[in-house]
Design a protein that fits this description.
two-stranded antiparallel sheet; alpha/beta; 60% helix
Length: 373
């Protein structure tokens, strides 16, 4: 019975399949695919929700992107610099601060740095003079209405940042450098101290060229010139009052000639240039300690150099006066001969010395008298 019933059941199932509609197979297939797709979509939604939860948890623990880290670090640096600037116009830096706030990115501000040596054992008088002008410039910027976080002033002393001097291959002080917001400093970012001087006005002009930030320099009131002028007027007035009965000295040609010569010597030696540019008195080589009183360029000079030129011009003038006196006087012939020789010696010696200085500054000048080189 079992063996006979099995074929009969197969025949009945075959009849049922035979009687199914022919268009039902595509419908069943479509329904099956739709169920699979709905199940897969539900799984994708669950997976995406899991991923979003994981990302939100990781975002709360770690920064979301490098840009955020960049902006946060920059904001911290600017905030620290603004805090220092609120306390003083110029903040001092050692090697670590220099590398963090000046050399290392990110940076969207310009930094003016004065490299100097202000310790007494360094005996750098020029550094102290330049520091005074630098303080005037920084205070003018700090208390101006245009003050912002795009420009800061700092200082690196040799005894506090020797590694910085070595890193920059710097062997002289004072030196002013501009560190731009992007990239490395160029040649023009180093202030030409020897040619321009270190006056606050000249530094402000250089900063305007490099950063487009214009600083109006405000100097503290200086009454020394007014006091000196008042004393001079009082002295002259008192002298005239005491000599009111005998004013012949006013018509003394020799006295007026001496006053005129003093003015001429002061102007021809470059005293007015020193007053405008503010050059250093001399230059000391940090390697061998040798002091230079004559600047090697024709575009600049030291204060000591102008004093030397003044003395040489005065000696040459004295020699010319003696020669004129020997030629025009009617005294003893022997005395006139001695005066002539002394005057001639003064002119030849000191004019040769002056000419040698001129040749050292204007290289290639072919003429000379006595060779002092």
């Amino acid at each position: 019975m079992g063996a006979r019933g099995a074929p009969s059941r197969r025949r009945q199932a075959g009849r049922r399949l035979r009687y199914l509609p022919t268009g039902s197979f595509p419908f069943l297939l479509l329904l099956l695919l739709l169920c699979i797709q709905l199940g897969g979509g539900q799984k994708k939604k669950e997976n995406s929700k899991k991923k979003e939860g994981i990302m939100s948890m990781s975002g709360s623990l770690f920064p979301s992107s490098p840009e955020v880290v960049f902006q946060n670090l920059l904001a911290e640096k600017v905030e620290q610099l603004m805090e220092w600037s609120s306390r003083r116009s110029i903040f001092r830096m050692n090697g670590d601060k220099f590398r963090k706030f000046i050399k290392a990115p990110p940076r969207n501000y310009s930094m003016i740095v004065m490299f100097t040596a202000l310790q007494p054992q360094r005996q750098c008088s020029v550094c102290r003079q330049a520091n005074e002008e630098y303080q005037i410039l920084a205070n003018s910027w700090r208390y101006s209405s245009a003050f912002c976080n795009k420009l800061f002033f700092s200082m690196v002393d040799y005894d506090e940042g020797t590694d910085v001097f070595q890193q920059l291959n710097m062997n002289s002080a004072p030196t002013f450098m501009h560190f731009p917001p992007k990239g490395r400093p160029k040649r023009a970012d180093t202030f030409d101290l020897q040619r321009i001087g270190f006056a606050a006005e000249q530094l402000a002009k250089w900063i305007a060229d490099r950063t487009d930030v214009h600083i109006r320099v405000f100097r503290p009131p200086n009454y020394s010139g007014t006091i000196a002028l008042a004393l001079l007027v009082s002295l002259v007035g008192g002298l005239l009052y005491l000599r009111r009965n005998n004013l012949e000295f006013i018509y003394n040609k020799t006295g007026w000639a001496m006053v005129s010569l003093c003015i001429v010597f002061a102007m021809t030696s470059g005293q007015m240039w020193n007053h405008i540019r503010g050059p250093p008195y001399a230059h000391k080589n940090p390697h061998n300690g040798q002091v230079s009183y004559i600047h090697g360029s024709s575009q600049a000079q030291f204060v000591a150099e102008s004093h030397i030129i003044l003395v040489l011009n005065a000696a040459i003038t004295m020699g010319m006066v003696l020669l004129n006196e020997a030629a025009t006087s009617k005294g003893d012939v022997g005395k006139r001969r001695i005066i002539c020789l002394v005057g001639l010696g003064l002119v030849v010696f000191f004019f040769s010395f002056l000419l040698s200085i001129f040749r050292s500054k204007y290289h290639g000048y072919p003429y000379s008298d006595l060779d002092f080189e």
